[in-house]
Amino acid sequence: MNAHIASKLLGLSAAIGLAAAAHTGALAQGAAPAANPLGLPEAPTMLAKPDPNVRKATAVVNGYVITGTDLDQRVALIVSANQTELSAEEMQRVRAQVLRNLIDETLQIQAAEAEEIVIEDAEVNQTFARVAAQNNQRPEDMEAFLGQIGSSSASLKRQIRGELAWQRLLRQKVSFFVNVSAEEVNELMERLEASKGTDEYWLWEIFLSATSENEAAVEANAAKIMEQLRQGGSFQAYARQFSEASTAAVGGDLDWIYLAQLGDPQLETVVGQMEAGQLVGPIKIPGGYWIVYLRDKRQVLMADPRDAMLSLKQIQIGFDPAASNEENQAKLQAFLEGVQSMRGCGSANDIASTLGANVVDNDQIRARALPEALQNTILQLQVGEATPPFGSLEEGVRVLMLCGRDDPESSEGPNFDELMAQIEDERINKAAQRYLRDLRNDAYIEYN
């Protein structure tokens, strides 16, 4: 699998985390109907009037105190990643969710400690330094930034410690018992070969679990998350703090997958109709609601044209802001005619010099490194051809001329070991969800 920022830093594997608990088994005589499995009254009489405006700010989890400062600093990470100001109602919802996340994080660390798993400070600091480097900052600069936004390095390091501890615990308690047969892997390899040339998808996900009792509230929560994402909120930040899928640790990143790996015909249909950059949801699925973002797509076992290595000439001309509009328009027209008269890259430099244009050579640049609006245009050119002019009189006008192109070789796809690791990851992640659910059920939690 591709290693994105979080997986590079924490060694976390991105795999499908859509496991859901299904109610099975026949109802015994006299048991509650399926629509009301707990046999609750339709109109319960409340002995105390609930106040929806009251939210518990802190908690004590098996003796460990989560303070208001812990909550504030973790919320600040979400707020800073959001490009729009959160309303009071949205902020209240974020704080409630972050508190739940802090409780889960504490349970994970405590479970690891119970198994004598120790995450050394040096390892946490090293990971923190890599996080800073990924953001083009030194550790001390990262600490200063976190302080400016109302968070702290201690808060981020606590989150890092929790993720490291949880992954190590899963390797010790879960991974050891996961078995994948050679027949399963060979079957998947045959399916991949049969699907050669079809699309595969790079997905990011957010999964919110729901029961019949809280389904309406979870759906409303998912709809609010969608609204924030459409307004520019960071998908990865929301996934890390709100998603209940195992991919939350890597910002919801499912990596490149094939539709069959989703394991749900409904989701296969939805994703198969999506275009790169599209956000869809919330989608009701067994066990909850799913929000999905299609980062990119390509064809299975086929070379991606955007991986072609290009040799380009960038020919650009600037304009004098003090000159009259007529003079600049005449200069632009001369430039356009001069570009049309170029006969391949061999004549580009000479003609450009007569026009007063600058030429910049880019000998090794991948097509995917170009702006998306230019990628398809460039890939349709033959050597010696140029793009239509683009720009303006204010910022200058330029063209890109294709001088060479080395197409990528066809992809061989994942090998036997890589596919086995993917299947193992999926099973480990599903088991991890069950493990965390058990920890919640056994926990002693007081709210202050």
UniProtKB/TrEMBL annotation:
<dbReference type="Pfam" id="PF00639">
    <property type="entry name" value="Rotamase"/>
</dbReference>
<feature type="signal peptide">
    <location>
        <begin position="1"/>
        <end position="28"/>
    </location>
</feature>
<dbReference type="InterPro" id="IPR046357">
    <property type="entry name" value="PPIase_dom_sf"/>
</dbReference>
<dbReference type="InterPro" id="IPR027304">
    <property type="entry name" value="Trigger_fact/SurA_dom_sf"/>
</dbReference>
<keyword id="KW-0574">Periplasm</keyword>
<keyword id="KW-0732">Signal</keyword>
<dbReference type="Pfam" id="PF09312">
    <property type="entry name" value="SurA_N"/>
</dbReference>
<dbReference type="InterPro" id="IPR000297">
    <property type="entry name" value="PPIase_PpiC"/>
</dbReference>
<dbReference type="GO" id="GO:0003755">
    <property type="term" value="F:peptidyl-prolyl cis-trans isomerase activity"/>
</dbReference>
<dbReference type="InterPro" id="IPR050280">
    <property type="entry name" value="OMP_Chaperone_SurA"/>
</dbReference>
<keyword id="KW-0143">Chaperone</keyword>
<feature type="domain" description="PpiC">
    <location>
        <begin position="198"/>
        <end position="296"/>
    </location>
</feature>
<protein>
    <recommendedName>
        <fullName>Parvulin-like PPIase</fullName>
    </recommendedName>
</protein>
<dbReference type="InterPro" id="IPR015391">
    <property type="entry name" value="SurA_N"/>
</dbReference>
<keyword id="KW-0697">Rotamase</keyword>
<keyword id="KW-0413">Isomerase</keyword>
